[in-house]
Structure formats: C-alpha cells, structure tokens
Amino acid sequence: MAELLRVATAGSVDDGKSTLIGRLLYDTKSLFTDQLAAVERTSRERGDGYVDLALLTDGLRAEREQGITIDVAYRYFATPRRSFILADTPGHVQYTRNMVTGASTADLALLLVDARKGIVEQTCRHAFLASLLRVPHLVLCVNKMDLVDFDREVFEQIKEDFRRFAAKLEIVDVATIPVSALTGDNVVSRSPSTPWYDGSSLLHHLEELHIASDRNLIDVRFPVQWVVRPRSEELHDYRGYAGQVAGGVLKPGDDVIVLPSGLTSRVAGIDTYDGPVEEAFPPMSVIVRLEDDLDVSRGDLIARPNNQPTVGQDLNLMVSWMVDAPLRRRARVGIKHTTRSVRAMVTDVCYRVDIDTLHRDESVETLGLNDIGRIALRTTTPLCYDPYRRNRNTGSVLLIDEATGTTLGAGMIL
Amino acid sequence: MPVTGYELTHLQMLEAEAIHIFREVAAEFERPALLFSGGKDSIVMLRVAEKAFWPAKLPFPLLHIDTGHNFDEVLEFRDRRAAELGARLVVGSVQAAIDAGELTEDTRPGASRNQLQTPVLLDSITDNRFDAVFGGARRDEEKARAKERVYSFRDEFGQWDPKNQRPELWSLYNGRHRPGEHIRVFPLSNWTELDIWRYIAQERLEIPSIYYAHSRETFERDGMLLAVTPLTQPRAGEAVVPRQVRYRTVGDITCTGAVESTAATVDEVIAEVAATRITERGATRADDRVSEAAMEDRKREGYF
C-alpha cells in the first residue's frame, strides 16, 4: 500500500503554479470531468480568455469573485506508488501566515520560478519559510522552459543563483527541475526537449523521494493525550496512556521516565485496537502501559531516562505572528505545546526578520501581522521540549489569546 | 498491523491522525457527539473512534439528524450498529419538527428537506449542550470543504465564517471556545473517497446494501438517476427503467441519485471508484448543484 507525502506549494497565478497543479491532478487522473466542466463554465461566464485552473482550488465565493487565493486549499492525488496531500497557499507577503500553516506539516516544499524572470523576491521568501518550518525537502521547478527554448544556460544560471541564496538557509535537500507546466515537459515523464537534464521528472521525484528517515526515530517522546481507564467488569485493572508517538521508537521492556514528575518505570506493553505491537514510532497512535502504578495525566511526557527533553519555563522562540494586534513585551498569552496547555508572559521581543532580505531588525519592539521574529517567554509551569530543529512535534507551540481563544501565532523553539 | 522499516501505509497514517484528533477533542471538550447517519463516511469515522477509545467504550453519544426521507436499509443499519457498540443514540427528527409546526416544509416539486436539517441539527446541539460535534466530511468532496479546518468553529448561531478561520498548524489543535459556541470536528478531512473504500475493505466494515449494485426501478431527472419511491415519483415524460445501480453517497432519498453499476463487492467498488472521472457529489447530489457556492452557503448557515 502507498505511503503518504505532504507537499506545500505557494505562489501566484503568474508563475504557472495553478497550471502545474492542474496538470499533476489531470495526469494522475485526480481531476474529475465535472470539476473541469464547472471551471470552464465559470471562466467563460467571467469572460476569461482561458480556462483558469486556479478556480479548482479557489473554493470560496470571495476568492472566485476577486480572482485571488486567500487561504490554504488542500488537494489530493495519488499514484500507485504514493498518495499526496497538496497544501496550496497564496504567495504574497500578506499571506505569510497561510504559507507558514501549509508548511508546518509538509514533507516537501514545491517552489516555482518563471524561467524568463529567474529568482525573485517571492522565491526567496518561500525558501526562507520552508527552511524556518524545517520542511525537509525542497523542489525548485524552473517553469516556462518552453518560452526560453529549453535553454540549458538559463536553467543552470537559475540553479546557481538559488544555490547561492539557499546556502544562507538550512535546507537539507534541494532538487531543481526544468519544466513546462503548460506543455507538460518533465512534469510526469522526462522530456525529449531537455536532453541535457539527467534528473527525474517532477512526479517521479515526488514518488521516489526517501522520506522515512525524516522523522526523529532516536529521541523517545510520548506526550500523554488521554488516560485509558475502562472501569468495566472485565477490564477492571486496565490503565494505559494513549497518545501519538512524537519521536523515537518505544518497545515493551524499555526503561522510561515520566516528565515533569521524574518518576521512572518500564513499558509493560503497547496496545492498539488491532492488537499489541512490539514497537511504536512516529506518527503511530497507541496506548502505552507501564509496569508501575504511577500518577500520570494528560500533558505529561514519557521519555527514556538517558535521553530526556529540556524541562523548563524559559523559552526562546522564532514566531510567526498571525493577527493584527501586535505582539509586545509583557503580553500574556496561552500556550499549547504537545498535549499541555499553560500560560506565559512574553519577556522580550528580540528582533524581526525581513523575510525577503533575511536582515534582522533589532530595533523593533513589537511584531505585527505576518511578521517573523525572535521572542523570549516564560511559562507559568514547566514544558518538556526539544529544539524545533531536532523535533517538529516537541519543538512547536501555538500562542493563544486567553480571552477570545484566537490563535495568535506559531512558535518554533530554538 | 504489519510494520517494517518504521514505515506506515498512507491509510495507517490517516488513521493515526484521525485517532489523535478524536482523543484531543475527548480530552478538551465537555460534551462531544458523533454525527452518525449510517452512510459510509460516518461508518468509517465510527470505526476510527472505536479504535481511539478502545478498550473503553465511546466517551460520547451518536447523533443522527433524520430527515424522515431516509432509506430504510440505512436506518436499520444505524440502530443495529449503535446497539452493538452500546452507544447512546440521539435522533433529531425533521418530521417531528414539521409536525410540531416548528418548521414549514417546502412542498413544491423538486424541493427537498436538505435545508430543514440545519435548524434541527442546531436545536439538537443546543438542547443537548454539545460543544463538539464530529462529522465525516472530507476535503476532497467539495471545494468549500477543501478550505475548512479540522476544527471548524461555529458561533452561537451555528454559523461558519470562512474568512475568519483559525490557522491550523502541525497537529496542535486549538479548541478554545466560549459558552454557546461549538466546533464541528472533521477527523477524516484528509481522506479521499478511495481511501474510505480501501479502509472499508481493510477493516471488513459492513455498510448498507444500497452502496452495492442492485436492481431498481429508476428514472432520469436533470441528468441524475432517481429511484422510484413513495417520495420520488416520475413526472410525465420521465420513463421508468429497471437498472443495475448503486449509491455513491447516501443522503435524503429525494435528492440523492444512483449511478449505473455492476459493482457488487468492495473490491469491485474500489476498482470502479479508481476509474471514475466524476466526483461523488457531482454525480449524485442535487443539493450541491443549486449554485457554484451551494455548499459554502449552506455551511455558513450551520449545515454539516
């Protein structure tokens, strides 16, 4: 059975993103005739000179009326080898929060550049956000190659320009592919127009990419989500801790420590509805039973005694701010981290990053909507955390408005 | 569960994600309920819920909004499944609301009770003080749904505001809400129609017989195949023809169309779904055809 790959893409109509997505959907037979007919009808009624495939993903009335994408749209397609979830977001700076949202769960970021224009501000912004959110793989599609006569020099120059920019970022794996979304060159199969290109087609690259080792399988991290106590006749003494493995490989017999209490025990068994398992690893949802009867509740974290996360109240974060009201020093916010909710106070706003130039502005005192910056905060009770670069699950937090419940921002622990 | 090389299949990943969502909601909300119609998506959702809380029973009741125009096969199935799980079943009845004079039925030809489900659903949520309601909707069904969050907030009037949704990052769900507000939760957001069928096969789930090919008296209307029932009668000029059909979605009899099919087993249905080029709602649901934004408009008012 196929694996799942989550792809995030960002951009505007101009760079051919919608055409590329439309082609991937169409060529994997994931685009349906009634959807296509509806798009053709709407394009005709609006008087467009062409079939605007963006209408496929622009699902809201306001988006269709204004001809813009304002939110994350999810599209699904599959090949016999893999299933894909595509989070499609608008690319302009005022949609940074949407791009951050799409990238937060992605295995791969898909960037498009127009071969005639090369690397532009928007390309750099997307690459920076992919790097910030630690999307493990990046594909740069140099699109509209048909408009530059499939010129190898053009492609190599863009590839080199991007390589130089990306050297400033922490991006592990970059592939650069010359494509024409309109004509289909190198999208699904290798194109005869680019004999000088010896890499994979885009779809083949997406299908064959090795993603299994992107997860952290070293540091055991199991945030307790729900305590299982059936209290029924036949299961009178059953007590287990349900959760989704956030890191490492957990096995029966393993010595474990429960944090923040520090109590130790051993894994008695790992249960699922489908029977016990010998190993649990991310992102499995399981029930862990311990040999000793400890006081464990939601929000606690199970780790190995010789490999523990940091337990502390002072956090340094990179945050993506998502609301109009600015983030200021001394702001009081709610924090959700793994399965634990606490309160916190912002102790410092250190700097704002200009996401187009990567310049740090240390003179700022606040962060506004769509800003990215570094802050420090202190929580009322300890969190059990890892650096985000080490573990996306135990290194990420939501900042929440305690009064309205709104999500204010997303934080990545440094 | 065969597991090698620390890899999961895409169905196992989708299941693990959905289980996580169920447990988050159960832990953070006071009074959740699960919308169970007896349709295939809610059957799959119910199995995932069973897995999330096993070996304990479901920590919440099932809720069904009965339009009074449901297929008998589906209602029988609903009652049997609830009994097997020992789950409490809450039924909100559109017919009862009409009989009590709380709702006025549109009896013009072509009208359905689809619109009437929304006030009954909202009343059921208020009366039972539900603060979280699980639904089986998928993002691949329809383009307004493709934009909806897993945790979808509803104000005190049950309305969805698509332009003012909370960003949803990683697997960190923010369930904060004020009294009177509730959320709709869609644990199967990332599943496709084909995933649903593959899961039905993998779990050997029983589903109502009308999902498989059977012979029915049918007639064509607006490009859809409708069954001849007491509620759906052919008009003059609409020829009744016996056909081998099955249902891809199961909703209100009056607006759910059948598709011609010979697929009589799960494997045959999977083969058929994999080859089809028309979306399930486009093929079979008159309620979504009203306008380009039919689903968005109904969801804004509090629809499923």
Description:
The complex is a heterodimer of chains A (414) and B (304). Chain A is 19% helix and 34% strand. In chain A, the strands form four sheets. Chain A has a seven-stranded antiparallel β-sheet with strand order 7-13-10-11-12-9-8, with no helix packed on it. Chain A has a six-stranded mixed β-sheet with strand order 2-3-1-4-5-6, sandwiched between helices. In chain A, strands 14-20-17-16-21-22 form a six-stranded antiparallel barrel. Chain A has three domains: 4-214, Rossmann fold, CATH 3.40.50; 221-303, Beta Barrel (Elongation Factor Tu (Ef-tu), domain 3); 310-413, Elongation Factor Tu (Ef-tu), domain 3. Chain A is an alpha+beta fold. Chain A is built from eight helices and 22 strands. Chain A has helices at 17-27, 33-46, 54-57, 61-66, 96-104, 121-132, 152-166, 202-208, and strands at 3-11, 73-78, 82-90, 108-114, 137-143, 173-178, 222-223, 226-228, 240-244, 255-259, 263-271, 285-290, 301-303, 310-321, 327-328, 332-337, 340-353, 360-361, 366-367, 372-385, 396-400, 407-413. In chain A, strand 16 (332-337) and strand 17 (340-353) form a beta hairpin. Chain B has nine helices and ten strands. Chain B is globular. Chain B has helices at 10-28, 40-53, 72-85, 94-99, 114-127, 193-202, 266-275, 280-284, 294-300, and strands spanning 32-35, 62-66, 89-93, 132-134, 151-154, 182-185, 214-221, 224-227, 241-246, 259-260. The model of chain B has no long low-confidence stretch (mean pLDDT 86). In chain B, helix 3 (72-85) links the parallel strand 2 (62-66) and strand 3. The two termini of chain B are 33 Å apart. Chain B has 304 residues and is α/β, with parallel strands linked by helices. In chain B, strands 3-2-1-4-6-5 form a six-stranded mixed β-sheet, sandwiched between helices. In chain B, strands 8-7-9-10 form a four-stranded antiparallel β-sheet, with no helix packed on it. Chain B folds into two domains: 8-194 and 290-299, HUPs (Rossmann fold); 207-286, no CATH class.
